[in-house]
Amino acid sequence: MKKITLLIIIQLFTIQITYLYAIETNPAYGEVISKEYNIVNGTFNFTIEYKFIDTVTFAYDKSAQFILPDGWSANIAPVIKGNVYYPEDTILLTVTVNYPVNNLPFYPKKISIIQFVTSDNTIEKEISTSAMVYFTPYNTIEIWNLQDFQNLPRRWFTPIENPDTTRIYIDPSNIPESNIDTSVYINWEIGDWEDDWQDFYADSAYTGEEQEKVIDKYKMKNKVNEKGYRNKPLTDEQKTSNREKSKTRARVEHVFGFMEQSMNGLIVRSVGIVRATGIIGLINLTYNLFRYEQVVRLNILQS
What we know:
Structural class: alpha+beta
CATH architecture of the domain at 28-156: Sandwich
Order of helices and strands: HEEEEEEEEEEEHEHEHH
Distance between the termini: 34 Å
Largest sheet: 7 strands, antiparallel
CATH class of the domain at 28-156: Mainly Beta
Radius of gyration: 23 Å
Shape: globular
Helix content: 25-40%
CATH topology of the domain at 28-156: Immunoglobulin-like
């Protein structure tokens, strides 16, 4: 009975820690609803669903900002400046994008929408939501949220600036059928295919052609921060992308940094995977206790 009670307490504690991380990061988040637009006429729209974790007020004096390719423009409706939303509320906003039809990109383009909000602690925060836009060879437009885009079963080549080629549309009915022999049995229970194309986060020290070859060789998704160079600084789009990548990288690095510096390192001297798994689980639980104490002591959540 004591073991069952302890297990329940640990599970509830883990849920609480996960909740604390979520609301500490942002009081709300937005997600693009992926869709395909069947006409290329200079404009398209898509929907963003905003979900609220905390009480949120949208800034009275700031409109949504857009990070777009050159020559593009956008607006969002309805206007929600000054509106207040509460935990578990959801709203749908429509983003309309205008683009020049005479210079369509050959590669996916990222667009970002930034909203300015304040939560109960009156600290202004940015809610950044991004989408990937791809003008297909079939005369359609694909709009993807970042998660769906990363999960696409496609391989993208490195973009070439100003490719010397002509855009030619093809009818989907002319796409050849796959020549994969579906009669061949594939044993999905073996192999490491589930580990392929996981996200690889690192700072800008890991940029360069050689690093990209290594990342591609080991079938990882390149989430390395981009680096600016002399006479070629980072664009606003690249800076925004770096900030989004750094949120994940820093959150993970801080955990391991604390374990290494304040918990006498991460060396496991046990014998056998079962013992090692148990020890690592206790290390993680100990870190969660330290982090929970810090959140409460510093009143980070302004509770």
